[in-house]
Amino acid sequence: MRLEFEYGNGMMSAELPDTTDVFIPGETVPDPPCLPQDWDSLYEATMQSIRNPIGMPTLTEIAKAGDKVVIVIPDIVKGGNQPTSHRKVAIRACLDELYSVGVEKKDVLLLFSNGLHPRATVKEMRTILGEELFNEFYPLGQITSHDSEDYDHLVDLGYTEAGDHVIMNKYVFDADVAILIGHTQGNPYGGYSGGYKHCATGISHWRSIASHHVPEVMHKPDFVPVSTSSVMRQKFDRHGMFMEEKMGKKFFCCDAVLDTKSRQIEINSGYAKEMQPVSWKMADKRTYVHWAEKKYDVVVFGMPTNFHYGDGMGTNPIQMMQALSAQVIRHKRVLSDRCVFIVPSICDGWFHDERWPYLRELYEMFQHDSMNILPDMNRYGEYFATNEEYIRKYRFANAFHPFHGFSMMSCGHLAEEHTSAIYIVGAREPGIARGMGLKTRATVEEALQDAMKKYVGPNPNILALPKTFTTAAVHLCMKDPSQNSHTRDGHGHPCCG
Questions:
Q1: What is the pLDDT of residue 494?
Q2: Element (H, E) at 191
């Protein structure tokens, strides 16, 4: 069979055996039905959720005239930007409730929870919020981004019982009402976005993030395959509850379970500790897909230049490793022990130095014999994270924070650890891929022939994943629950039946 895979800004064709299985999120196995996608219907559903919160009082009971309110919103990386996106609808619904009890517009701040990601540009603000909300708040100076290095607007909360240092955004800490608008979408880090992950990563400091996005957490047995019972997930939840304890108030969460096209399936609001399990119940049905009837020896998927973290992710070698590892984390349950990846990527050596100004230096460090695996570089985390030039670029030049690279490296090693080999196909600069321990071949067909000779034998089970990085991903599971693994809170994980 002939299939098309993402490659750079275009596609690469490949001829694969007719026995190849193909999985496309939202198509091979349909998502649960989404809510009606007209504005009025979504507004009504969102308002119904807000007025019936799980585990805490309503917004109209919490807020009053004169209160300062901060609405925390995910950045451009997640959630969809259509006119009826969850962010747009939920912000408006929350505002209407707040205004109804006398909260004034001048006392509301819209805060992007970008964490160590670049601060939102004006163009991104318009895209995420829409013209109406943007024009309502931006001219008044009431839209801003979290800045992990702005110590005038950070609060040191001290240490959790586990010894994790928690530093959070001061606007949120000082607010009378703190609202988290999030998305319950499958995420290789801790199972799902939204809930406490939102605040633990989006409005905290790199030292707080360094307690979970690091090798000693990512390389625990519970991290692969993805689950909501991992130590990382536990840290997200504990950090979020620690913030609430120190603030003296609970976050009011409004999270939407989203489908493959970022459309709302279900909306839940309230206290994250009690709301998350409810939200996950529906999210599990979309995200943990019980489909595979056999373990796969070969997985083929394409890597575009521009996805998730932005343009250059599919060419920057360290970002490429993180993206490869994400597929291991998501799909490990359906991978054989000898599995290889075959991945079309232009891999042309473009680091996008403006966006990731420090990754070229990290890559060059990795070429020394003292750096055998990516986590070997983790000891340089503080060295890079405190580099003034890189910090200035994060704060004022739309770059990622330098510590972000270390979470990528921590995760990136998992691809190497859990596969027999990874082939990059069609690399324009093959030495870049080889410098990360990857193999290179000109075509998918050549890579498959080599893999059959060296790793998987003459009759491998092959899985093709078109659109892997252009749709909201799933976590593939075996159809037979007994062939899956992991528990959550002492109960069977959804992948186990």
A1: 60
A2: strand 191-192
Question: C-alpha 468: how far from its chain's center?
Answer: 14
Between β-strands 335-344 and 25-26, what pairing exists: parallel, antiparallel or unpaired?
unpaired
pLDDT grade, residue 493 (50/70/90)?
A: low
Contact 42, 236 (CB under 8 A): no
- Asked if residues 263 and 80 have their Cβ atoms less than 8 Å apart, the reply is yes
- List the end-to-end C-alpha distance of the chain, in Å, as a whole number: 33
The verdict on 331 and 280 lying in the same domain is no
* 401 and 375 in a common domain: yes
> Is the separation of the CB atoms in 200 and 140 below 8 Å?
no
How many separate domains does the chain show? 2
Asked if residue 455 is part of any domain, the answer here is yes
Q: Answer for the pair 74, 253: CB distance below 8 angstroms, yes or no.
A: no
Please report whether residue 491 resides in a domain.
no
> For residues 313 and 311, what is the distance between their CA atoms, to the nearest angstrom?
6
Query: What is the C-alpha separation between 324 and 411, in angstroms, rounded?
Result: 9
Residue at 237: amino acid letter = D
Structural tokens at position 182: 């999030």
> Do the beta carbons of residue 260 and residue 25 sit within 8 Å?
yes
Owner of token pair 């739309």:
398
Q: Which neighbouring-strand residues pair with 344? A: 425
Do 316 and 356 form a contact (C-beta atoms < 8 A)? yes
Q: Which residues contact 291 (CB under 8 A, 6 or more apart)?
A: 23, 28, 29, 476, 477, 479
Query: Residue 124 CA to chain centroid, in angstroms?
Result: 18
What is d(CA 468, CA 473) in angstroms, rounded to the nearest whole number?
A: 7
Peptide linkage before 225 cis (omega within 30 of 0):
yes
Instruction: Give φ, ψ of 69 to 5 degrees.
Output: -125, 135
| pTM, to two decimals | 0.94
Q: Do the strands 421-425 and 335-344 form a parallel or antiparallel pair, or are they unpaired?
A: parallel
- Confidence category of residue 288, pLDDT binned at 50, 70, 90: very high
Looking from the CA of 184 toward its CB, the CA atoms found within 13 Å total 28
Distance CA 412, CA 435 (A): 13
Q: What's the CATH code of the domain at 16?
A: 3.90.226.30
Q: b/e string for 63-84 if b means 16 or more Cβ within 10 A?
A: beeebbbbbbbbbbebbbeeeb
